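Recall the central idea of this unit: under ordinary conditions, the amino acid sequence of a chain determines the structure it adopts. In this exercise we apply that idea directly, starting from the sequence alone.
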Amino acid sequence: MKTSDFYYELPPELIAQDPLSDRSSSKLLVLDNDSKRIEHRIFSDVTDYLKKGDVLVLNDTKVIPARLLGNKEDTGAAVEVFLLKRLSGDTWETIVRPGKKLRPGARAVFGDGRLKCEITDSLPDGNRIVRFEFVGVFEEILDVLGQMPLPPYITHKLADKNRYQTVYAKNDGSAAAPTAGLHFTNELLAKIKGSGVDICFVTLHVGLGTFRPVKCEDISDHHMHSEWYSISEDSAKLINEARSRGGHVICVGTTSCRTVESAADEKGVVHAGSGDTDIFIYPGYRFKVLDGLITNFHLPESTLLMLVSALAGKDAIMDAYKEAIEQRYRFFSFGDAMFILPHSLC
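Accordingly, the structure predicted from this sequence is:
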């Protein structure tokens, strides 16, 4: 398949710039995965499509204030270091700007000098390995000096940085939010759990590689950047038990989907553990665990659009996106949601 097969025109005014005051009041497009029939609901109605015995899988990663704005130590020139992945206690894989000024050996200073860094290596894709120097707790310093890494298509300033976190965010490490989870409130989660639906958490630290454009014409030539994930024994057990009793595994977001699919064997058994995954899911992929998916609306020609197309079919997804545009849905990180139903619910 070609990358251009996943292109669509989106009016700029449909790119959501601000989160809604009520997380669960966003629109919800429900896609029947057999008939491809579409319903238009409100997100809080998601409970109508979850049944006792199902398991809802949430990604509890927490976005860190990954953008560091500082100055080159020798010249004072403005620089930016964007944290992607922690490699050890003080060493990170990063994106730096401007790249020409931050080659191996270059040093940068942030804020009042509480944080400094040295570029130690340059990777083939242009990313840099950075070693930080500081006294105290890195996370506490980062919380003061760092900025939340909002996507470039969001131009409005975020009044409350917690609105770019899920209410269940727990484990620091993401460069971007698992945005399908932004629609859930604690009250909605309590209602879901009270209906007999199991809720379990996995962790996948979202890197920018997930959102990078596919530059090759043949999508099978694209290579995903790896991201770290973890699944506990308890979560693996809940997922496997739901499958064994005939319940559905409903993943919230493409990151939860990629996590459970990466941790499953060919029989669909999910194994606890942690590691890196570069799984790329596109049409033709056979899902081993996931039955249904709650997700946001994704950028044209993105790997995330390819993933949802693998689940529901490219034509059905493109038709659903066309209708969402006609119905003036809000798109991307702070936008509305879609629920691709399990086949047996259709």
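The longest strand covers residues 78-86.
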